[in-house]
Amino acid sequence: MRECAKAGLVRGENIVMDSTHIKANADNRNQEWAEVIKTPKAFWDDLGVAELPAESSVKSKNPCDPDAGYMSRNGKPKGFHYLDHQCSDADTGLILDVFVTGGDAQDHECCVERLTYLKDGMGLPVKAAGLDSGYDTIGVHFGLTRIGVTAYIAPAKRGIRTEGERLGIEAFSWHPEEDCYVCPNHKKLTYRATWICAGIPTRNYGASMEDCKACPYREKCFTEKTKSKRIVRKPCQEFREEGWERTGTGTYKRMLRRRSVVCEGNFGLQKRCHNLRFTRKRGMENVSEQCLLSATALNLKRLVKGLRLLDAPGEMRVTSASHPGFLTLFRRKSRSVRFLRSAAA
Ligand code: SF4
User: Does the predicted model carry a pTM greater than 0.85?
Assistant: First the structure.
């Protein structure tokens, strides 16, 4: 990383983050159940919203490699895996940070911590982050706002039904000054009660039964089990809504495009050429070592390519229009055009 920074290949303003699974060296049939104590979600406590007690849950563990986690996600292979969380420079594609967790961890759990490390620990001028829908939680929106990073996060479809079935939460607009939601039929959903849900106080809003009874959206709005529409609002939801407002803007589209090109491209290359598909090692430390070596190999290739391009004749260099002062270096290889931006003079 230091060598890449010296060569001017680290810009560090726009960061993209994602994770990939690595098959653990553990037999899926060899499982045992262990009680795990989960620490409370720190950001609720920071806000003074709630003091959450430590939670205990039962998780599947492999006695040969207790650090591996049993992954069970839609569209992903089931079994014991590790997750390699990588932060990359959106402009140059360099991998800036590698962090490994068990396969049962969620992507959003380490996001704020890693970006804080890049900003404060490595001293990078992080301004924006491009993330997929797995990071669309109140904790990530709140945490990134607090450290001064603008988050461009694809909205999660959790609990939102497909068009034609049910109206999603996005169909209801929030009006903080009146402390109410307004529905597609222009009726108000007013505050009803506060419920404690998993230790977190949530505010409940509801429409009147008369309004809903005569509404043309009735069937699309809520199920037969209730008589009027109810919406549950968590504390700090406004940070998430602020993030959703960036959806569809030019910068949002650019960041999400860079996320898919850089993150998916790096993972694909590492899995194909740099030993990231599975691990023969066991234990968090050993697997982290493998992931770091894989990322280092890719960065070294980029460094060599970058240095070679910097020495290239002037006609191969083009000044970047999006980042004045930077150079966009490119060359054609087969039919693809490879981009590399550098701060070199
Ligand atoms: S059913 Fe009730 S909440 Fe839903 S759109 Fe109609 S009036 Fe509004």
Answer: no
